[in-house]
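Listing S7. Sequence submitted for prediction.
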Amino acid sequence: MLHRKAQVSQLEDQQLRDEVAIKDLKNELADKHEEVAAAQRKLVSLRTDAGAEQGAGGSLSRSQSFTAAAAAANKSQPGAGSLKEQAQAAVEVEETIKLLEKRNSQVLAEKEVNLKLQREVQDMKLAVNEESFVAQSKLYQLAQKQLQAQSADLEKQRAIIDSLQRDRDAGLHREQTLQMKAEAAEHARWALSQAEAHIGEVQGQLAAARSAGEATQVQLQAEKARMGNQSSVSELKLMIATLQKETQALKASLDKQKRATQSLEGLREEAEGAVAKVKAKDAEMQHLREKAAKQQEQVKALESKEHDLKERAADLRCFVEVLQSFCEDARDVAEVRTSESRLRSQLQAAEAQLGGKDGILSLADLRRTSAAAQAHAAELEAQNDALRVETIALKRQVEETQASLTAAKAESEAYIAEIDEIGRVYEEMQAQNSRLLAQLTERDDQNNSLVNERIKAGHAAARLAQDRDAAQAAGRRAEAGAEQLRERVVQLEARLKVSIDEAAGVREQVRSYAARLDAAQRKMREQEEALAAKQVLLEDADRAMAERKRVLEEEIEKTSKERTKRQRLEEDHQMLQSKLERLKRTEEVGGVDKMAQKELEGLRALLRCNVCHERPKDVILTTCQHMFCSECVKRNLAMRNRKCPGCGSQYGQNDVKHFYFT
């Protein structure tokens, strides 16, 4: 519901924003209409000026012909001036006439272009008035009507939603009242249960008071029976002495067990040390065995290599002997000797491979080391066996000691428990003895106090009887109140049933209201979709109007450029006319100084600002190339007037540039 309200408010805000945007567009379009009207007025004025200039052109041609005739007449006169100067003046006049004719043709062309642009502007104005003017657009009026209808429907739906919310709030209020009534019924039930519990407590207190009175009577009789017994003190003293003796004997046995435990701990530490030594010896023996095995492998490898070499040497010796016995030729003997030397070299190489004497010595050392290692290993095995036997004996001793320690611990724990029990009994007996001694010394006082207590007990029994009567009366009142509460509970249950029925009806109404609300929300969504479609159409119309506006601005910009160009041509025309007049005046006697003075004044006027006519020009507007003083331009910028004072074209801060006459 809140989300729907937010959406409706957003749609209303969007509608207001659209209306404001439409008003802005209307105002902007009205401004454009005014600008177009001003442009039309300027074009009309230019047209009238152009007609006047055409008439002036005819008169100018006539004056030119007259001037030419006057110049010819002056040429015929001998005393009018220098012929050379007159010829130059005539040439300048002819050039000026040609330039004026050219400028007139340009002005006529510009007028035709301006007329064409004026017709285009009028066509654009008519098109804008017919199609893009929002206030007269049929599509916009239709959208406005539909938007008003949608707004009315939204208001109706909002009123329906508000009524449904009020009904829902009323149903919730009724449901809350029903819940409060149910809570009141629960509170009444709880009060009834509390009253019943209080009645039970009062009855329990009454029973406890009765039992306390009976116990007091029994205690009084027991105290009376115990007062006549005089032999209990001597028996207690004898029991205390016996307990002290038994306690001393148990302490002695406990000390003995502690000493046995300490000796057992020492034996355990010794056994653990012996086991650690045996493990270290085993590790060392294993290392020596591995080392001896490696050395034996090396010895075996060297022995096998030595055996092979010896066999090869024996074979070679036999071969040499056989050759010496069978060969008698000197050449054969030489060959045999060479072979013998070769074999000897091979034998030496083999001995070198064996390491020579060092190898033989290392082999012997290895054998001796192996024998020593084997002997040391045998000794270590013997020591290991002895240590293992000692370890087994120690383990057996440790096990026996642990068994005896376990038995001693069990016995000591039994002794300790017995000692604790005896101590507890001893303490109880001491307490009982002190109590009995106090009772014996204060027997008379106790008798008096018991008599007083009996009297007090009688009074207490009377008070308890009164309390019992009061409790019974309170119980009766509580039963009456409970009956009233039961009746109240029955009434509340009946009202609760009625309220439950009413709540069921309210829930049905809420469900029906919820269904109506969903239907209203669906309808509102449909209306929102239709409104969005209308907004899309309105945006399309706005875009079309913006396009028309852009085209109109382009045409206006073209018109302003043409107007600027025309203004420049007119300035050139005026300058040429002034030059022509100046040339005419130069022909008059004594007019040279006056013309120079006027020309100087004109140049000074050109240098001064066209707005204030006081300060010199020092800035130029790059958009239209017009020059003014910086103070006037700054004043226009400060006043937010961004139009050129000369031509009215727009310019910005970046279009203002300084220049200097050098």
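Caption to Listing S7: primary sequence and predicted structure tokens for the chain studied. The longest helix spans residues 443-586. The mean pLDDT is 70.
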